[in-house]
Amino acid sequence: MSATRSEKLARALGWFSIALGSAEVLAPGSLERFLGVRDRSGLLRSYGLRELTAGVGLLTRSRPTLWVWSRVAGDALDLATLAALMPNSRKPGNVAGALGFVAAVTVVDILCALNLNAQAKAEGIEVRKAVTVGKPAEELYAFWRRLENLPQFMSHLEEVREQGGGRSRWVAKAPAKREVTWEAEITEDLPGRRIAWRSVEGSQVPNEGSVEFSPAPGDRGTELQVYLRYEPPAGDLGVAIARLFGEEPGQQVEDDLRRFKRLMEVGTLPTTDGQPSGRKTGAGRMLAALYDNRRTQ
Prior knowledge:
Alpha-D-Glucose-1,6-Bisphosphate, Chain A, domain 4, 7-stranded antiparallel sheet, elongated
């Protein structure tokens, strides 16, 4: 998919951050002289490191919204710093010019971030992950089809309650210790092969998903292909905020599938204090440590 205008602008802002940060880190004395101030080299270098970090984030992330908003926060800090320097500057005209320039850049940053938010809201967030589990497809399907089992390995789910007729009520954890609830319906149910679902109209978080069960190569069990799509309430900003709480969607799903694999193959899951729980045996505990290090495929 080709980059949108907002994504191209975000990359341009990334290169701008790299250039500005390099100047602040490598030549703080020149900037001091331009602004007509002294003894600010350490401060300018710290601001330069901030710019370099933002630049790397903007240039390496496929969804750069978080880093654009980090630039907005940095702009606010820069504006406050320049305003504080003005009374003591030997070149107040230069400081005023810098204030105007930063104010203009702030407007560009805000517009870019808002456009990226709107773009993410329209596209939604998609996650595709796979894992191979050493169990028959029928057994894995039966466990997954009983939706009330899902919170056992999906860390973001508090509860799933089946209501009959293919409908269910889901309660999920959200950032800042909040909860999000919605109702969903099964849209496809092929025993031993595939389950698909979607939220009903009017849900807080419109979403859909599916899981497919197929024989793994080399008679190694069953390969699960999981697809999830949802529309966060605040667009891509919602995902950015979630990342601050350690809840990046792709990584979260990968971790959930690793727990599912371990639960099905070993019959145990780690507790919050690092000790195994579930069906505990001495051999199970030994195997659990090994399975923790096996990646999803």
